[in-house]
C-alpha cells in the first residue's frame, strides 16, 4: 500500500491509530481496558511465593508449583503473601515472607520479592497488579513503606480518593494504566498512614468468605471477614469488594493443615460440585449478578483456574500475551511420581518434628 500525496497519508492516520489502540490489551484482554478495576474478577495465587518444587524439596507447605513471575506471565494478577518479622544473623530486623513460621518455609525478604514484581511491571506496562499481604507480625506502614521505596515499586502504587471509593467504583484498568498507577496493595489489619497512603487496610476495602475449608461442601459466599456485614449483597452495599477464598486444606496430625493437593483437580475445575467455575457462578447469583472481584487459589495452573476466571470475565477468545503452562498436578522432578511423594512425606515429617520440639519446650 502507498499514498500518492502526504495529504492522503495524513487523512488516514486517525484510522490507523484507532486500529492500533483497539488492539491494546489490559491484563491480557482488550475487553478489560474500559472496565472498572472493581468490576473484573482478578485471578489470585494464594501464598504466591511459597512453592512446592525442587527449591523447597517439594515442601507440603507450598501452595504453588510456579514462582511469582511465572504466575504473572500466566495470567495471575493478584498475589498474596504472609509477612513475618525475622532477626537476621547480625541481629537486625528484617521482614520476610514465611509460611506460618520462618522455621517452616522462608521465601526470602519482602523487599526482594517486591523488586522482582517491579521488574516484571517495568516490562509489562499494560498490566494492573494487586497485592494482599497478611500482616502476621503487626507491621506498621513505617515498617513496610520503606521496603516499597527501596524496591522502587512504590512508583506504581495507587491511592484511592476515599476509603472505600464512592459507591465502590474504582478507576478503569485503562485509567490506572494511563496514570501509571498500576499497583494496588492491601494489607490485612494495618492502620493507614498519610506517609504511605498506598498501603491500604484490606478490610476497609475488601470482604472475604471463610478461608479454612477442608471439603468442597464447605465453600460459601457468606462474608466472614470483617464480621457483621450480613449477606453478600449487604456487604457489597458498603462499597467493599469480594475476595473469594477457594482452596482446601488437608488436616494432618497435631492439628497441622497443609494445602490439599490431592483434590485440586476438583477444586480448580470449571464445573462440578465444589469447582471454581461453579462457585464463581454461585456467588455471582447471590450478589445480584456481580461476580467476586478477586478469587485466590492454590496450584493455580491446575484446572486451569484462569479458564474459569476468563469465563466469568467474558473474555474467552480475546486473550493475548499470556504464557501457557501445564494444567496438571506437578508431581515432582524427573525422578518420577514415587520420588516426589517421598519428598512430600519428608517435608511433613520435618513439620511434625518442629511441632514436637516446640511442644517439648513448652512453646
Structure write-up:
One of its GO terms (biological process) is lipid metabolic process. GO terms for molecular function: phosphoric diester hydrolase activity. The chain is α/β, with parallel strands linked by helices and 363 residues long. The chain has one domain (26-360): TIM Barrel, CATH 3.20.20. It has helices spanning 6-21, 68-73, 110-123, 141-151, 173-178, 202-205, 232-236, 264-267, 276-286, 305-313, 337-360; strands spanning 42-45, 78-87, 93-98, 106-109, 129-135, 183-187, 199-201, 206-208, 241-245, 249-251, 257-259, 294-297. Strands 1, 2, 3, 4, 5, 6, 7, 8, 9 and 12 form a ten-stranded mixed β-sheet that branches. A two-stranded antiparallel sheet has the order 10-11. It is globular. The protein starts with 5 loop residues before the first helix and ends with a helix.
Amino acid at each position: 500500500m502507498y499514498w500518492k500525496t502526504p495529504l492522503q497519508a495524513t487523512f488516514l492516520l486517525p484510522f490507523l491509530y484507532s486500529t492500533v489502540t483497539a488492539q491494546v490489551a489490559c491484563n491480557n484482554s482488550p475487553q478489560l481496558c474500559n472496565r472498572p478495576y472493581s468490576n473484573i474478577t482478578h485471578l489470585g495465587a494464594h501464598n504466591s511465593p511459597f512453592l512446592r518444587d525442587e527449591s523447597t524439596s517439594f515442601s507440603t507447605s507450598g501452595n504453588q508449583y510456579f514462582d511469582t513471575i511465572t504466575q504473572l506471565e500466566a495470567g495471575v494478577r493478584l498475589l498474596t503473601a504472609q509477612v513475618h518479622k525475622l532477626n537476621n544473623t547480625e541481629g537486625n530486623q528484617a521482614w520476610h515472607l514465611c509460611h506460618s513460621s520462618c522455621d517452616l518455609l522462608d521465601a526470602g525478604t519482602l523487599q526482594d520479592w517486591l523488586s522482582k514484581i517491579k521488574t516484571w511491571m517495568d516490562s509489562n506496562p499494560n498490566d494492573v497488579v494487586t497485592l494482599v499481604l497478611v500482616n502476621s507480625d503487626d507491621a506498621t506502614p513505617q515498617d513496610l513503606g520503606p521496603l516499597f521505596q527501596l524496591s522502587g515499586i512504590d512508583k506504581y502504587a495507587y491511592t484511592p480518593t476515599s476509603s472505600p471509593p464512592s459507591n465502590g467504583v474504582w478507576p478503569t484498568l485503562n485509567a490506572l494504566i494511563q496514570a501509571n498507577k498500576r499497583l494496588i496493595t492491601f494489607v490485612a489489619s494495618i492502620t493507614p498512614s498519610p506517609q504511605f497512603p498506598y498501603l491500604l487496610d484490606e478490610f476497609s476495602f475488601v470482604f472475604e468468605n471463610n478461608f479454612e475449608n477442608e471439603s468442597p461442601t464447605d465453600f460459601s459466599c457468606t462474608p466472614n471477614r470483617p464480621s457483621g456485614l450480613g449477606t453478600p449483597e449487604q456487604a457489597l452495599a458498603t462499597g467493599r469488594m469480594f475476595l473469594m477464598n477457594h482452596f482446601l486444606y488437608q488436616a494432618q496430625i497435631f492439628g497441622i493443615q497443609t494445602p490439599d493437593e490431592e483434590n485440586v483437580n476438583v477444586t480448580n475445575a470449571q464445573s462440578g460440585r465444589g469447582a471454581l467455575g461453579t462457585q464463581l457462578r454461585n456467588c455471582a447469583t447471590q450478589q445480584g449478578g456481580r461476580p467476586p472481584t478477586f478469587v485466590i487459589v492454590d496450584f493455580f495452573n491446575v484446572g486451569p483456574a484462569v479458564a474459569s476466571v476468563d469465563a466469568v470475565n467474558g473474555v474467552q477468545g480475546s486473550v493475548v500475551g499470556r504464557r501457557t503452562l501445564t494444567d496438571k498436578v506437578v508431581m515432582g522432578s524427573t525422578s518420577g511420581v514415587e520420588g516426589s511423594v517421598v519428598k512430600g512425606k519428608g517435608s511433613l515429617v520435618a513439620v511434625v518434628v518442629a511441632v514436637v520440639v516446640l511442644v517439648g519446650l513448652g512453646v
